[in-house]
Structure prediction request, 251 residues.
Amino acid sequence: MLDYDKEADAYDASRGGEPRAEVAAEAVLGLIPDRPGRLLDVACGTGIVTRRLAAARPGLRVTGSDLAPGMAHRAAARLPGTVLLADSRRLPFAGAAFDAVTSIWLLHLLDDAAGVGAVVAECARVLRPGGVYVTTVDKAAAHDVGSDIDEVLAPRPHRAARDAADSVTAHAAACGLVPCGEAAFPGVGQGRSPRETIADLRRGWFTVLPPGDPRTEEFAVRLSRLPDQDRPRPDPVFTVRAYRRTEAGGA
Prediction:
């Protein structure tokens, strides 16, 4: 996993910046009822999306949380007094404290299904009956846009997706959360070029192969033969799903 304290300063610029944050926030807001209440953005990162959620819904009191101090520091600069350090598996809030909970680009980072289940359970626990949980799913699959880069990388070893939509829905059901909506948005500015992909492969991204593995270099050589080395291929399209907490809640 990335060191998000080290990545914090350059994170926004490397992830599509404000244009991506704008479309992400719009997709999330389309799944949350437009009424006063409290919203918790779990793993809020730099707060670039969180700030837009707060600005678009003045009636919502928005709180952000993140485990990485570097990320939380940047988020706090955008949303003073509303961001705290917290492990998403052990949220420091009372049960049924929020009307909406979001976790954008989080579940795919967790080590195993148990970790995903723990996060979903915590999000459900702090959600009021009738409240809505919104999360991204299938993040890795979103980057497969059918390009020549994807064709080259298709044989690489894969890690099982922790945020597969069916798996997340099963975890949600165990916590008394039922599906209530879905949306999609483009990862603006995140289309990959062959040259960028080679650099990321050598950092250990996109594959379970460690940096320096001979197979990584085989993929790098094949990528280097593609045309238009610096031309980004199409942007990924991310999926967000919404789940409503039933009156009874989970076990």
Summary: The mean pLDDT is 91. The chain is about 40% helix and 20% strand. The first strand starts at residue 37 and ends at 42.
